[in-house]
Every structure is written in structure tokens, then in C-alpha cells.
Structure to design on (257 residues):
């Protein structure tokens, strides 16, 4: 039997269509990318807090913008800071913010290249304290109120002669300082300003800053046990660099100033 050219073309089209359909049926469909679960501290306004279960704050906006630029879907999970860090360390979530790295934390977590933001940690004293200026060396032998679970940089952590007094929250650190349960307290500048305007308004004028402990740079602490984090951190760094260059980061920060 002699085939005509038109018949041959028709048979080829039919065969290709059926092969394509069979291939599609036997090829597993790629599952949609699951959101990366990131812990967001739930009680650290204006940087990261929660309202009705939803995270909000300057750091929240920064993290969302960077991951959106990286093309990585995320789910932010509001958590108390200590639990947030424990969940990330165990690999149950991909990371936690906001964290000031120190030598121990660098062993337990991955950190991205550039900080999310920075803020001074203030050395706070009672208003009637005669001290005008103080630095880290001046805290040796003193009772210093710190917030439970927070870190204050390698230099402070190495000073074992500083007598640490633990407060459950920053606002309680201010109250404990006023109640003379410590000589000094360490609280971030913008946290202090917000608390003295709101929750701790009664202490306004009764507490003063006697100097910065350090200019703290804050990061996401990425889990070392969560799968695929090396690639995620690389994508985060590249996206972060682009947003720093095009001024998106500075625009977000200005909205919160």
C-alpha cells in the first residue's frame, strides 16, 4: 500500500499527540512550594510583635520584603523569643528573628551576610544616679538587669564579673531598675523610647541613659538543622543586597521612624 504525504502527516500528528498525553499522565506533577516557616518574636515592638496572632513591625516588613524579592514564600510564626530560638535550633522552623549573634550562636545557627537593621543597646540608670557616662568596663562588679534569653554581644557575654539579673521582658527590666533590683539595665534604644511613651509611661523622667553598650546589628538566626538552608541563605543574601542597593530597605525603615 502506498501512503500519500497528507496521510503520513496525519499519522505523525496523531502519534505525537498520544505520546504527549501518555507522558503527561506518567510524569508526577511538581508539588507547590511549601512556605518556609520563620519565627517572629511576638513581644518586641516596634521591631517585631504580634496583634491578634499576626506579626507586625519594622523587622517583619523587612523580612517579608527580602523573601518576596528572593521568590521564597514564607509563613511568619509569632513566638516568644526564647521558644522561637529553641524551635529554630531544633530545626522545627527555618529561622527566628531578631537576633544579635555571638560566638555561641554562630555555632548553633547560620547568619546571613548583612544585618536586617541596627539599634544601640542602652545602659540605663535611675535618674538620681550621679553617674553621667558609663561603658562596658564600668559595669564590672555591678548588678545589671538583662532580658531573659537575649544576648548582648561577645564583649558583654565574656565579662563574667558582671552580676546579671534576669527580667522576663524589657518593660520589666525598666520596672526592676526603678525598684532598685539592679544597678543598671540593658535595653535597646527604640524599645526604651516606645516603652517610656506607652507601657512604662509612669517611669518617664525616672530613668536615664548613661551611654550605649554597643551598636547592635540584628539578624535572622537560620537553623542549621532545617533542610535546604544553605541555598535559602544564599538567595536571601542576593535579594537583600538588591533591596539595599535600590533603597527599598531604607524606605521601609523610614516608614517606622
Amino acid at each position: 500500500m502506498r501512503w500519500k504525504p497528507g496521510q503520513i502527516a496525519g499519522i505523525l500528528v496523531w502519534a505525537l499527540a498520544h505520546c504527549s498525553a501518555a507522558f503527561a499522565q506518567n510524569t508526577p506533577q511538581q508539588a507547590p512550594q511549601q512556605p518556609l516557616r520563620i519565627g517572629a518574636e511576638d513581644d518586641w515592638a516596634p521591631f517585631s510583635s504580634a496583634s491578634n496572632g499576626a506579626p507586625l513591625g519594622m523587622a517583619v516588613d523587612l523580612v517579608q520584603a527580602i523573601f518576596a524579592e528572593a521568590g521564597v514564600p514564607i509563613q511568619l510564626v509569632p513566638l516568644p523569643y526564647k521558644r522561637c530560638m529553641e524551635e529554630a535550633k531544633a530545626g522545627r522552623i527555618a529561622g527566628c528573628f531578631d537576633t544579635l549573634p555571638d560566638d555561641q550562636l554562630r555555632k548553633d545557627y547560620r547568619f546571613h551576610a548583612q544585618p536586617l537593621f541596627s539599634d544601640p543597646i542602652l545602659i540605663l540608670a535611675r535618674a538620681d544616679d550621679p553617674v553621667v557616662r558609663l561603658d562596658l568596663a564600668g559595669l564590672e562588679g555591678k548588678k545589671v538587669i538583662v532580658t531573659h534569653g537575649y544576648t548582648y554581644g561577645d564583649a558583654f557575654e565574656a565579662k563574667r564579673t558582671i552580676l546579671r539579673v534576669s527580667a522576663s521582658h524589657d518593660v520589666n527590666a525598666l520596672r526592676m531598675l526603678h525598684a532598685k533590683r539592679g544597678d543598671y539595665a540593658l535595653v535597646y534604644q527604640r524599645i526604651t523610647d516606645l516603652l517610656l511613651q506607652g507601657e512604662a509611661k509612669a517611669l518617664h523622667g525616672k530613668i536615664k541613659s548613661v551611654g550605649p553598650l554597643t551598636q547592635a546589628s540584628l539578624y535572622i538566626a537560620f537553623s542549621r538543622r532545617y533542610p535546604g538552608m544553605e541555598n535559602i541563605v544564599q538567595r536571601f543574601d542576593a535579594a537583600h543586597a538588591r533591596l539595599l542597593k535600590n533603597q527599598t530597605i531604607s524606605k521601609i525603615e523610614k516608614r517606622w521612624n
User: Anything to note?
Assistant: Confidence is low (pLDDT under 50) at residues 1-5, 7-32.
